[in-house]
Specification:
Blueprint (H helix, E strand, L loop, with lengths): L7 H56 L6 H49 L3 E2 L1 H20 L20 E2 L11 H26 L2 E9 L3 E9 L4 H12 L14 E5 L2 E3 L5 H7 L33 E5 H7 L9 E2 L13
Parallel strand pairs: 3-7, 6-8
Antiparallel strand pairs: 1-2, 3-4, 5-6, 5-7
Length: 347
């Protein structure tokens, strides 16, 4: 066959056309063989009938010697025809039984191959039951000895689809399971709601915050807030308290105030809950304690962290800009959640 030279897509198309033509040629050859077989079968039918009547005629001649009456002749002929038909029926029945047994053997071989493939994850009890039913059907037909039907299509029933069940001994926990996934999602949702309810309860708890208005000297005050409140809400409430005593704060707004805790400038959007949950630390003490207490110990131990908290400072931003080069404003720096303070310092 000549080799095609050209683009790869055209070569693939030419190959497909060649395969299609080959399939058509095979189909035509099969049709030709089928027609030839049908013609042979038709010719064999005529031969069978002729052989049948020839055998009956020969038997009749051998059994009737001498002069017989017409009635005896007809009765003898009918008996011989019936006997011959009975013999042919038995012969055809034997052939049918042999074909069925061959089909059963082929089916058993196929089922054995399927069993070897699927024996690890599927049970084969249903297949065995189907085999037993087929064997019983063949045995019943052999016992009755009834003549076969003229229509061969009635003997061939369409094969039933076999239902394969899961083997209960195989571990299937790693396979996807809709019921198990729904149960896990439901449990996960319950835990999420329980956690959110607990956190909401913590945010609604009240704490007392000690702060000092710093204008070069400290003026200490206390206020009660919720843990979920932000620094901006705290400064708003502190400003309402401080306006009565400090005239420079009467025209000031919250955006002009700063909150300094443990030498860190805390942004307004953070909440007290954020520092409590993360156990945040500052330069000179913890950011999650908002009261004032000192570490009173008779013997100092370097391995134990000091437990002391200082009052947060509320400062005007204008005052900080003027005095940020002077202590203590020179120590202040913006709060950075990524920065860690391993040791506390006060100088």
């Amino acid at each position: 066959m000549a080799q095609y030279k050209g683009a790869a897509s055209e070569a693939g198309r030419a190959l497909q056309l060649m395969k299609k033509r080959e399939r058509q040629r095979e189909h035509m050859e099969q049709m030709r063989q089928r027609i030839a077989e049908e013609n042979i079968m038709k010719s064999n039918i005529d031969k069978k009938f002729s052989a049948h009547y020839d055998a009956v005629e020969a038997e009749l001649k051998s059994s009737t010697v001498g002069l017989v009456t017409l009635n005896d002749m007809k009765a003898k002929q009918e008996a011989l025809v019936k006997e011959r038909e009975r013999q042919l029926a038995k012969r055809e029945q034997c052939k049918e039984l042999q074909l069925k047994l061959e089909r059963l053997r082929e089916r058993a071989l196929k089922q054995e191959q399927k069993r070897q493939i699927s024996s690890l994850s599927f049970s084969l009890e249903e297949e065995e039951e189907e085999e037993e039913e087929e064997v019983e059907e063949v045995g019943g037909e052999e016992g009755t000895g009834s003549p076969p039907d003229d229509d061969p299509d009635k003997d061939e029933q369409p094969p039933k689809r076999r239902k394969l069940g899961k083997n209960p001994d195989v571990d299937t926990s790693f396979l996807p399971d809709r019921d198990r996934e729904e149960e896990e999602n439901r449990l996960r949702e319950e835990l999420r709601q329980e956690w959110e309810a607990k956190q909401e309860k913590i945010k609604n708890e009240e704490i007392e915050i000690t702060f000092s208005y710093w204008d070069g000297s400290g003026h200490r005050r206390t206020v009660k807030m919720k843990k979920g409140n932000t620094i901006q809400q705290f400064l708003q409430k502190a400003l309402e308290i401080l306006r009565k005593d400090f005239s420079e704060l009467r025209s000031a707004g919250v955006e002009q105030l700063m909150y300094i805790k443990e030498d860190l400038i805390i942004p307004h959007h953070h909440s007290f809950y954020d520092f409590i949950v993360t156990k945040a630390r500052g330069k000179s003490g913890p950011l999650f304690n908002f009261d004032v207490h000192e570490d009173v110990r008779l013997l100092s131990d370097a391995t134990v962290e000091k437990d002391e908290s200082h009052a947060g400072k509320v400062v005007l931003r204008s005052w900080y800009e003027k005095n940020k080069h002077i202590f203590p404003a020179s120590r202040w720096e913006p709060y950075d959640p990524e920065k860690k303070w391993d040791k506390y310092t006060i100088r």
